[in-house]
Amino acid sequence: MSDRAPAGQFLDAAIGLLRRVRDEEADSIAAAGTLLADTVENGGRLFAFGAGHSSLAAQDLVYRAGGLALMNLLAVPGVVGVDVMPAPLGSALERVDGLASAVLDSSPLREGDALLIISLSGRNALPVEMAMSARALGVKVIGVTSVAYASETKSRHASGTYLKDHCDLVLDSKIAVGDAELTLDNVPAPFAPASTVVTSALLQAVMATTAATLADRGVEPPLLRSGNVDGGHDWNRRVMERYRDRIFYRH
């Protein structure tokens, strides 16, 4: 299959986006990694949230081999993944006013914690209110979004604002509006989304920065090992016991 075949075109597009993220978001990635390292060192807890397919990148950070043990998933029933039936209900829930505040009120988030909010469009009520409400609690918010949506779409929040407007730091995934990298004359709609690939890589770059920053400060990063290597489970058991008050997915 030639490089001009759809598979090659998609991979080239994804590689191009990853290069843009590497080159254009380097300072933001460094700042986000430093913010998370500060949070860990100061006794704070780490959380990640994403709705719909944006939840995939959030879930990739939690209980992850090679990842930070302190990263917890902030789950909102009905919007994490496509397991809700019918699936379009999840999209509808993202537009419900007040849902984010209800979730935060019953969550363990508190002042001094850090929350990653992943939303490709950043236009729906849920991520906007999540960021606004979390910051009001004294939580540091890192938004991961495609900034292009703010200039090419209309906000669905009453304020007319987007996720990017309510964050301490913003990471721009560079994904084009519509999240489809390919077009063909005989295919009626654009296809081949790259947001999951790029967003996951962007976030793992932040995690790498966090781990290295902690190590540079003389703090052992609370990392997990694969349970499929010898000694992995014992290692993870020790890490989770040490940080049990900051890990919520084990209770």
Characterization of the model:
This is UPF0309 protein GCM10010255_50040. It is built from 9 helices and 5 strands, in the order H-H-E-H-E-H-H-E-H-E-H-E-H-H. The radius of gyration is 18 Å and the shape is globular. The protein has about 250 residues and is an alpha/beta fold. A 5-stranded parallel β-sheet has the order 2-1-3-4-5, sandwiched between helices. The protein starts with 5 loop residues before the first helix and ends in a 9-residue tail after the last helix. The model has no long low-confidence stretch (mean pLDDT about 95). It is about 40% helix and about 10% strand. Helix 7 (about 150) links the parallel strand 4 and strand 5 (about 170). The protein has helices at about 5-25, 25-40, 55-60, 90-95, 100-105, 125-135, 150, 195-215, 230-240; strands at about 45-50, 70-75, 115-120, 140-145, 170.
